[in-house]
């Protein structure tokens, strides 16, 4: 039996915009707005209006989550729902009541609430008026929103995170056009990366000033460990830069309070380095995280680029490396992502050895599969054996990392109940619990029952 540490977090993660539905129409976030103007971009034209209907069914949903053994849950508070006046941070009372009720209900179901403050869901007006995360004004407004959340809910919420996967904002919104406003501008992308780091540090500063009892704050990063195609120095160099850009640009400021010097050198050479100043450097330095959430789905395998970087026109980070498809790799064909559970062990050791053995937990990991109806048995339960195998293998490697001394305190799968996922909408299902988007009927999958057993044993065979 592979036993996990005492008080290990067994749970799952979702977010406000992906689960709640559009309960407060006062402000749209960037996804609400994008769906209004380009519904055809969303899989099957399904938008975020209903999501998994958590706003209306949170009590029953939380009961179901508890019934599969979950002892912790991450979700997020939506800025565009909580705040009525975005300039003065005046709250919407209906939203305050909702989030109060949700937090109380999570605790009543004996789960630890983990609350995130930004899951790609910037209020769209702040993009239209100020240019969103390009602007320091938005950083200030975000810190005001964060402070409101700490004041309103910090008596009960003991674990906070400032952002989920900020790198997705940089790449999706400013480089590779997979999130609204679909800008391609590397100088802006780099400044947005800086501003998101600064926003996190400033929110942490505000959090620490409040000195909430027994409370901790972290950040959720999508760490995609980089593996070079070979020992050839050119492939190794490609991997070094991919690692700097994809992981260390957020990881080092979060843990050490400064950017990697090698990354700053590269961005300076390429004339895209962010604007900064000594006051902000001091804020970054003094406001590092208490813990990390690590979202891990797939590795990043790279080789030297076919076209030499210097001959390429506009700056793009990925001109320094090409994707490499490892022969014989296992792939989740529905999502197109390689399955490589050993990476969780590699992450565990990296954090232990190179990041002061910081406390961390797996804040997302999971397998998105389309059309799971085909796996329904005669009693209507989805027999998702592939997901059980996926989670078991990842947990096994994670366990090995913990045995080697890594300071990991939990595992959250993405996601408790099938939820809405940005442009992919309801294409890929990830939950322990299925959700019929027409009837809102929720049914525990085989993996949910399996997970319950894992939790009750605090480990697996
Ligand atoms: C992560 C996000 C989640 C969720 C997940 C699955 O990157 O933090 O919000 O969307 O990916 O994504 P998809 O449904 O696109 O496979």
TrEMBL record:
Domain of life: Bacteria
SUPFAM superfamilies (alphabetical): (Trans)glycosidases (SSF51445)
Keyword Hydrolase: yes
Entry keyword annotation includes Hydrolase: yes
One record GO biological process: carbohydrate catabolic process
InterPro entries hit by this protein: GH, Glyco_hydro_1
A GO cellular component annotation in the UniProt record: cytosol
Keywords, sorted A to Z: Glycosidase, Hydrolase
Family of this protein: Belongs to the glycosyl hydrolase 1 family.
PANTHER family the UniProt entry points to: 6-PHOSPHO-BETA-GLUCOSIDASE GMUD (PTHR10353:SF139), GLYCOSYL HYDROLASE (PTHR10353)
Protein name stated in the entry: Beta-glucosidase
């Amino acid at each position: 039996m592979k036993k996990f540490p005492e008080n290990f977090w067994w749970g799952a993660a979702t977010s406000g915009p992906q689960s709640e539905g559009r309960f407060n129409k006062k402000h749209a976030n960037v996804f609400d707005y994008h769906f209004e103007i380009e519904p055809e971009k969303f899989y099957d034209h399904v938008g975020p209006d209903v999501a998994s209907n958590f706003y209306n069914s949170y009590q029953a949903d939380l009961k179901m989550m508890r019934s599969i053994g979950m002892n912790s849950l991450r979700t997020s508070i939506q800025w565009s729902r909580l705040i009525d006046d975005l300039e003065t941070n005046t709250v919407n009372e209906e939203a305050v009541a909702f989030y109060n009720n949700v937090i109380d209900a999570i605790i009543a179901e004996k789960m630890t609430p983990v609350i995130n403050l930004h899951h790609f869901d910037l209020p769209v007006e702040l993009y239209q008026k100020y240019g969103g995360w390009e602007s320091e004004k938005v950083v200030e407004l975000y810190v005001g929103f964060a402070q409101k959340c700490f004041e309103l809910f910090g008596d009960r919420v003991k674990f906070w995170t400032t952002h989920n996967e900020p790198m997705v904002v940089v790449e999706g919104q400013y480089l590779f056009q997979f999130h609204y406003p679909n800008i391609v501008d590397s100088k802006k992308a780099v400044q947005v990366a800086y501003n998101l780091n600064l926003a996190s540090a400033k929110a942490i500063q505000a959090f620490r000033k409040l000195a909430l009892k027994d409370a901790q704050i972290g950040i959720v990063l999508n760490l995609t460990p980089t593996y070079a195609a070979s020992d050839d120095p050119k492939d190794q160099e490609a991997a070094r830069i991919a690692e700097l850009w994809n992981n260390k640009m957020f990881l080092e400021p979060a843990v050490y309070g400064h950017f990697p010097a090698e990354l700053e050198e590269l961005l300076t050479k390429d004339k895209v380095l962010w604007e900064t100043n000594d006051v902000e450097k001091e804020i970054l330095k003094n406001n590092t995280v208490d813990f990390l959430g690590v979202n891990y789905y797939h590795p990043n395998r790279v080789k030297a680029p076919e076209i030499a970087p210097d001959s390429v026109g506009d700056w793009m980070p990925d001109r320094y490396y090409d994707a490499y498809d490892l022969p014989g790799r296992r792939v989740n064909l529905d999502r197109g992502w390689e399955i490589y559970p050993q990476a969780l062990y590699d992450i565990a050791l990296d954090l232990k050895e190179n990041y002061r053995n910081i406390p961390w937990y797996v804040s997302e990991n999971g397998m998105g599969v389309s059309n799971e109806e085909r796996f329904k048995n005669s009693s209507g339960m989805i027999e998702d054996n592939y997901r059980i195998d996926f989670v078991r293998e990842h947990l096994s490697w994670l366990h090995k990392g913990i045995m080697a001394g890594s300071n990991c305190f939990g595992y959250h799968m993405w996601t408790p109940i099938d939820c809405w996922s940005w442009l992919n909408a309801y294409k890929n299902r990830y939950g322990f619990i299925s959700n019929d988007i027409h009837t809102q009927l929720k049914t525990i999958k085989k993996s949910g029952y399996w997970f319950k057993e894992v939790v009750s044993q605090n480990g697996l065979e």
